[in-house]
Write a structure and sequence with these properties.
3-stranded antiparallel beta sheet, 24% strand
Length: 185
């Protein structure tokens, strides 16, 4: 049985955090490289926390009793990240987590696009916010009525959530460019 099958069997085919059975996927836990089965809603709340995120995590009141150490560690990490809300601290105080699992939880990096998937230029160089790039192909800019010419330098770029896109100013207009048509200066 491979690792994915083990996680599916262990979870019973439901999100190991909220218990839903739809839109499930394996979530890689770093730095251990273990997996937890979670739904799109939980993944979105981990990757893009907002003012509604703490409300969603009330589901952890049930799942925090999981006997699976990596699930316990993820739940601990999530509750710790929102403990300023008040009620998560109560759950943390009630939660049983052994010392080894607590250490994993404290080392755990919650997934973000930037941590695992860097934006790369056409040559495979990592692009960072503030870098300068050169456009390597004439690109028609939709909606702006001009073509971004090959050889144009774009300074002080910004990264977007999509690892294949950056933002920068060309001809005084802020546009989105595909990183595969750029070369880092």
């Amino acid at each position: 049985m491979n690792e994915k099958e083990e996680v599916l069997q262990r979870s019973g085919g439901v999100c190991e955090l909220c218990g839903t059975s739809s839109n499930l996927q394996l979530y890689k836990i770093k730095p251990r490289n273990d997996y937890v089965l979670i739904c799109d809603t939980c993944l979105n709340n981990i990757n893009h926390p907002d003012s509604e995120t703490p409300r969603h995590w009330r589901c952890l009141n049930e799942s925090m009793w999981s006997e699976v150490p990596i699930v316990q560690a993820l739940i601990y990490r999530i509750l710790e990240s929102i403990s300023s809300e008040g009620w998560p601290q109560d759950l943390l105080d009630m939660m049983y987590i052994d010392d080894k699992t607590k250490i994993w939880a404290e080392e755990m990096q919650l997934y973000t696009q930037a941590q695992t998937d860097p934006t790369l230029d056409s040559n495979g160089n990592v692009l960072n916010t503030g870098d300068s790039v050169i456009i390597i192909k004439d690109l028609e800019v939709k909606g702006a009525g001009f073509t971004a010419k090959r050889g144009t330098v774009v300074k002080n770029i910004s990264l977007s959530e999509n690892k294949h896109q950056i933002e920068g100013r060309v001809n005084g207009t802020r546009i989105v460019l595909l990183s595969k048509f750029l070369k880092k200066v």
